[in-house]
Fold Kinase-like protein.
Amino acid sequence: MRELIKKNYSILNWKLIIKMLYNICDGLSAIHDKNYHHRDFHSGNILNSIHNNTIKSVISDFGLCSTANQSSADQSSADKSLYGVLPFVAPEVLRGGEFTKSADIYGFGMLMLEIISGKAPFVDRDYDLHLVLAICEGERPPIPEYTPEPYATLMEHCWDPIPTNRPTTDELYGQIVKWETVICKFEHSDSQVATKIKIKEAFSHEREEKWKVQLAKLATNSCPLKKSQNMLASKKLDCPKQLTEAKDVEMKTNNYSMLYTL
């Protein structure tokens, strides 16, 4: 996905990225409607093409996909291993919790960030235990100042630390359809005029130009990724084990400090 943005930054606009989100959400909705989770939802698994000012986006790599009602007891030890691209993995999963549809939604929120910023989430950080701890403690990537307010709100909703607070694919779809109706089609009906005007103002030409300037800068002066930031390939993550070990070290350190001060 990042390569598409880099190569096509000069022709990208709000209409195209809203259509991209529409297509991706449609695909994720189809997965969830069949009671599956993708389990490896990140930008490297989104295939895009642009032709005649039309964008097509599809979700790929279903190797880790599993049914939503599959219990931990039904999974082999290999199935229960955690794989992914760190910034796209939901905090509850990093802690060793059950993978739910809401974890895919968290990844969708990170996709939204990559589209609007043109950069990998946490691009200035190593993808290591320090970042895992930060994410689990509630840290999220900064949102560019030119981001339309409805876009930022939906993105942050996807990042909610409480999985049940995140939107469903139906709720995502409903919001994105509103944007598409106004920005891509702009139907001239009298229904919800105030809402449509608000959306139109949020996705203003001025904000679009600031976004395009950012994409142009990144296309011509892209920063090399850190060694730990392989954004196209998922890898095995030992986060739950590392978090447990880190907490054990912290507890022992605190106990030692208490004894030392007595």
About this structure: Confidence is low (pLDDT under 50) at residues 248-256.
